[in-house]
Amino acid sequence: MPDQLTAIETAAKLGISPHEVPILVGKGLLKPLGHPAPNGPKFFLTATLKDLERDEKWHGKARDAITEHWRYKNARKQDSTEKRQPSRLQTQTAD
Questions:
Q1: What is the C-alpha separation between 61 and 24, in angstroms, rounded?
Q2: Tens of pLDDT along 28-83?
Q3: How many domains is the chain partitioned into structurally?
Q4: What is the spatial distance between Cα 91 and Cα 29, in angstroms, rounded to a whole number?
Q5: CA–CA gap between residue 53 and residue 28 (Å, rounded)
Q6: Residue range of the domain that includes 21
Q7: Which terminus of the chain is more exposed, N or C, with fewer CB under 10 A?
């Protein structure tokens, strides 16, 4: 096994979806190696991931962070649809 894994390999090892890795990095629950560019590929240390995959407390925090992320995103989406002006068809009265 290599000393470092990509974000996709990390997700598979931790039992999460690949799109959830950036959420955990943003919340500080996963730390990539070095100082990668925000839009660059990120690599994770295999030894650290082995420790995390057995840590029940970390998995709970990770799941809470992911749930909170999507709750916030969905609330923002719902707020923006409520603030939209009704379409012209919705405002016309039926004769």
A1: 10
A2: 999 999 999 989 999 999 999 999 999 999 999 999 999 999 999 888 877 776 66
A3: 1
A4: 48
A5: 16
A6: 4-78
A7: C
